[in-house]
Amino acid sequence: MTIPILAVDDEHAVRTSLSVMFRKWKDLELDLAEDGQEALEKLAQRDYEVLISDVLMPRLDGLGLLEAVSERFPGLPVIMLTGVEDVTTPVKAFRLGAIDYLQKPFQAEELRTAIDYGIASREAEPAFRGSGNPHFDRGKFYWAGWRLTAARRR
Could you identify which of 23, 62, 105, 129 might form a hypothetical disulfide with 53, taking C-beta atoms 3.0 to 4.6 angstroms apart as the criterion? Predict the structure, then answer.
């Protein structure tokens, strides 16, 4: 059985690159959308384990999508992607519930690590995930059920 993942990006080249990455991950099934509005339509039709979203898109941007997902599909892990370097957008994304924020271009291993964490977080004990109580566990800091890590600079 494969794990369904939805990725949203308005750039054809990025969607193609994601398709190539996912071909080597036989346990994952990739579905693609071109913007946030199309992603919401797909989310209403099927259950996904993780959502991957670009930030800047037409119709409904990534932060708008993230906000809608937080309201309509609580508990769905969202990984944000962007090609724009700024400080405020990642902060907004994490406040809205994103579990990771990757800068384009990213390595396949970085994305896979984020996806695996998202899948594992869905399997976490529900009482823990929604608790909102910050705590440390095995050297990692958790808040509202999500593991927080320091941003990496390239």
Answer: 62
